[in-house]
Amino acid sequence: MKPSLEVKIHNLVLKNPVMTASGTFGYGPEFEDFFDPSTLGGIFVKGTTGKLRQGNPYPRMAETPMGMLNAVGLQNKGVDGFINDIYPRIKHYHTNLIVNVSGSTIEEYIEVAEKINSLDHVPAIELNISCPNVKEGGMAFGTSCPSAAAVTRAVREVYQKTLIVKLSPNVTSIAEIAQAVEGEGADAVSVINTLLGMAINAETRRPVLSTVTGGLSGPAIKPVALRMVWQTANAIKIPVIGLGGIMTASDAIEFILAGATAVQVGTANFIDPAVCPKIIEGIEDYLIRHGIDNIKSLISGLNIN
Ligand SMILES: Cc1cc2nc3c(=O)[nH]c(=O)nc-3n(C[C@H](O)[C@H](O)[C@H](O)COP(=O)(O)O)c2cc1C
Fold this sequence. Notes:
binds flavin mononucleotide; TIM Barrel; 22% strand; 305 residues; alpha/beta
């Protein structure tokens, strides 16, 4: 018998625990030549702000050993552009569409969340309080308990569906931030966004990125992400969605054992656009190989002693 891959994140039923991370999968149609996006557990779409944003000047990407730095800076069409131009093209997908909501002020988060609340085929939002690539707001909200709590509280008042908060790893204690947002009504947390980093060209003596610093992602951050998922899962009752450097099914299983209920795949999509179905298949193979009939029994299954 086939093992069950189904998990639940608050009110969302995921047919499998594999979702795509915001900013690394477009909106879905970009990947239709490689596989059917409806096979995913969910899609986190690109960060969406109140107004259209051009993002940061180029260069805004740099390769690093086992990873990449980006400073895209939330380039997007704005919430009205999303609702009018993009949503009609993706609302038929048979998967969970989750909008990554970003902003520079609490008012902007509220405006975007309120507008997205009215979309029937978007059952959840992910509050991005952890973007290191914008001058105002973004990561600033996610790096202290009072500001993380304040933005969560404000959005919770206007948003009735599943509210996921995406946490920044650029903090001393991610568990405390997780507790602060849980206390304000978050239904789940995503752990982690990118780690703040930089790259220098020794020949030109100049920074590689136009913004000097950027967000590090990919396999280089996996050990940090695993540690933070484990610490967070031990500190809160709401589900944790794990991400950071997941390239294979085995990576995904490691996050689930550390306490994640589901995972997101980010940078790996740039290397192999068909990686997600391979990860889903690999998880199923793992369950069969280990005689496990339900993925839920693996969550927090790490054997410490
Ligand atoms: C090019 C790029 C753009 C991103 N844009 C967003 C974004 O708009 N909103 C967000 O919350 N995270 C964004 N992220 C962060 C990813 O969603 C993810 O948290 C991070 O890359 C770690 O996962 P990974 O190592 O699997 O890529 C972006 C990452 C990359 C590489």
